[in-house]
Automatic annotation (TrEMBL):
InterPro entries: Amidase, Amidase_CS, Amidase_dom, AS_sf. SUPFAM superfamilies: Amidase signature (AS) enzymes. GO terms for molecular function: catalytic activity. Gene3D superfamilies: Amidase signature (AS) domain. This is Amidase. Pfam families: Amidase. It comes from Epidermidibacterium keratini. Residues 31-237, 302-430 form the Amidase domain. It comes from the Bacteria.
Length: 443
C-alpha cells in the first residue's frame, strides 16, 4: 500500500474513470492536476527528470479545441516518456552526462502515435544510464525511488516510468525492454508492464541498447490501459478474447526465487487453471540461455557504444561502462553461436506452444531490494542483484516473445509481479489471461 502523500490523481483509476474525467473537466484541468501532483510528489520519487509545464498546458489547450468526433482513444490522457525516447524539443539525455546537452530534434515514432491518439506528454522519466541496468538507481540524475518504500529500488531500466505509474502520477508511461526493463519496474512498483513480440512496436527515435533484443512498450495502471497503449503504439488491434490455456513455466533451474514469491505465483497459476499436478513447461538449459542472452546483449551494446565509449568513458557511470566494455572480448563466433541457440529455442517453443497457451511464472523472484544494493541474499544464498532481478525476464527478449507483468499481491508491503508469456501472434490470449487474473485479484 502506497502512503497517501505519494498517491497521484490516477492511483488505482480505471480507463473509464479517466475518460469520464477528461470528458467532464476537459484536458486543461486534467493536465493541471497532473502537473500539480508531479510538482508535489516527484521530489520524493525522482521519477521525472524533465517537465515543461508551459508545453504541457499548450498541448492540453490544443486538445480542448478538437471536436468530439475527431478525438483519439487517449484524448486528454497524461502520458510520461522514458529518457531514452525522443520528444521533439525536449532534453533526452539517456540518463547520462555524455548527452547532458542533447535536445531531440523530432518525436520518436511511438511518441508521434501517442500524440495522434490524443495523449498529453507530461514529462520525461528517469532511466538507468543508457538503459543498461535493471535496478534503476544508476544515472546522471541519481536513483528513482519505489513509491511503496522510498528506500527501495524501482527496478530498471525504465524505473522512472514504473514509479510514475505505480504512484498514480500518470496512468500510462513508455518504457523500453531489452532484458526486462519494462516488466521489472512494473513488477516492483505494482504496475502492469507489457512488451510485444520483437518488432511489433517501431523503435525509430529510441536510442539502441541491443537492437535484436530491444522492445518499446507501455507501463500502465491496469491491463486495459496497457492493451490500449500497445494498440496505439503498434497500430494493431488486439482481438477481444476470453479463452486461454494457462501452463506453469518450469523454473526449477532458476536460482534466487523467494519461496514466498513462488507460492503467490503458484496460487495465481492455479486460479487461472494451471494444475499444480501437471508437469510444468520446460524451457531447456536455463543457465545456457541466460549466458546466451547476456552474450548477445553485451556484444550488441558494445557495437552501439564503442566509438562513444572510447572518447567519453569518464562521463559514463562506471558500472555501466564496465558492462558495455565486456562486449569487447566477445568474438563473432561466440556471438553467432548465442544467436543460433536463441533461434533454435524460439522455433522449438513456437512448435510446442498452442495459439492459446500462456506460460506463467514470477516476473522477478524477489521483491524490491534496497537502493544501491549489489549483492542480495535469498534463502541464505548470496548473488548479484542485477542477475537475480533479470533471471526470469531476459530469455524472452532473446526469443522475442510477447510478455506481460501484472501485480500478484505483496510481501511485507512490497509488490510481486506475475509474468505471462505467449508465442508471437498470441497476444490476444496473453491479454485475456492477464485480464482474467486481474479480475480475480481485485474481486
Amino acid at each position: 500500500m502506497i502512503d497517501e502523500r505519494l498517491r497521484g490523481p490516477y492511483y488505482r483509476a480505471t480507463l473509464s474513470e479517466i475518460r469520464a474525467d477528461v470528458e467532464a473537466r476537459g484536458p486543461v484541468a486534467v493536465a493541471e492536476d497532473a502537473l500539480t501532483a508531479i510538482n508535489r510528489i516527484n521530489p520524493e520519487l525522482n521519477a521525472f527528470v524533465y517537465v515543461d509545464p508551459d508545453d504541457v498546458r499548450a498541448q492540453a489547450r490544443a486538445l480542448a479545441e478538437i471536436d468530439a468526433a475527431d478525438r483519439g482513444p487517449l484524448h486528454g490522457v497524461p502520458v510520461a516518456i522514458k529518457d531514452l525516447i525522443d520528444v521533439a524539443g525536449y532534453p533526452i539525455t539517456l540518463g547520462s552526462k555524455v548527452y547532458a546537452e542533447r535536445v531531440a530534434e523530432q518525436d520518436a515514432e511511438g511518441v508521434r502515435r501517442l500524440r495522434a491518439a490524443g495523449a498529453i506528454i507530461v514529462g520525461i522519466t528517469l532511466t538507468h544510464e543508457f538503459a543498461f541496468g535493471p535496478t534503476g538507481d544508476v544515472s546522471a540524475y541519481g536513483a528513482a525511488h519505489n513509491p511503496h518504500d522510498l528506500t527501495r529500488m524501482t527496478g530498471g531500466s525504465s524505473g522512472g516510468s514504473g514509479a510514475a505509474v505505480g504512484a498514480g502520477l500518470v496512468p500510462l508511461a513508455l518504457g523500453t525492454d531489452t532484458g526486462g526493463s519494462i516488466r521489472i519496474p512494473a513488477a516492483l512498483c505494482g504496475a502492469v508492464g507489457f512488451k510485444g513480440a520483437h518488432g511489433a512496436v517501431p523503435t525509430a527515435g529510441v536510442f539502441d541498447l541491443a537492437p535484436s533484443m530491444d522492445h518499446l512498450g507501455p507501463i500502465a495502471l491496469d491491463v486495459e490501459i496497457a492493451r490500449l497503449g500497445f494498440e496505439v503504439l503498434s497500430g494493431a488491434t488486439v482481438t477481444p478474447q476470453t479463452t486461454f490455456v494457462a501452463r506453469r513455466q518450469d523454473i526449477s533451474q532458476v536460482p534466487y526465487v523467494d519461496p514466498r514469491v513462488a507460492a503467490l505465483v503458484i496460487d495465481a497459476a492455479a486460479s487461472l487453471g494451471a494444475s499444480t499436478g501437471d508437469d510444468p513447461v520446460g524451457l531447456g538449459d536455463w543457465a545456457r540461455m541466460r549466458a546466451d542472452a547476456a552474450t548477445v546483449m553485451t556484444r550488441e551494446a558494445f557495437v552501439v557504444h564503442q566509438d562513444i565509449l572510447d572518447v567519453h568513458r569518464e562521463d559514463y557511470q562506471r558500472e555501466v561502462w564496465e558492462r558495455i566494455d565486456g562486449g569487447r572480448e566477445i568474438d563473432e563466433a561466440t556471438f553467432a553461436a548465442a544467436r543460433a541457440a536463441g533461434d533454435e529455442l524460439r522455433s522449438e517453443l513456437q512448435r510446442r506452444l498452442g495459439d492459446d497457451d500462456v506460460l506463467v511464472s514470477p516476473t522477478v523472484g524477489i521483491t524490491a531490494p534496497p537502493i544501491g544494493e549489489r549483492e542480495t541474499v535469498v534463502e541464505g544464498a548470496s548473488g548479484a542483484t542485477r542477475a537475480i532481478v533479470t533471471n526470469l525476464t531476459t530469455r524472452w527478449n532473446l526469443l522475442g516473445f510477447p510478455a506481460i507483468s501484472v501485480p500478484c499481491g505483496d510481501i511485507d508491503g512490497l509488490p510481486v509481479g506475475l509474468q505471462l508469456v505467449a508465442k508471437p501472434g498470441s497476444e490476444s490470449a496473453l491479454f485475456a489471461a492477464a485480464a482474467a487474473w486481474e479480475a480475480r485479484r481485485t474481486r
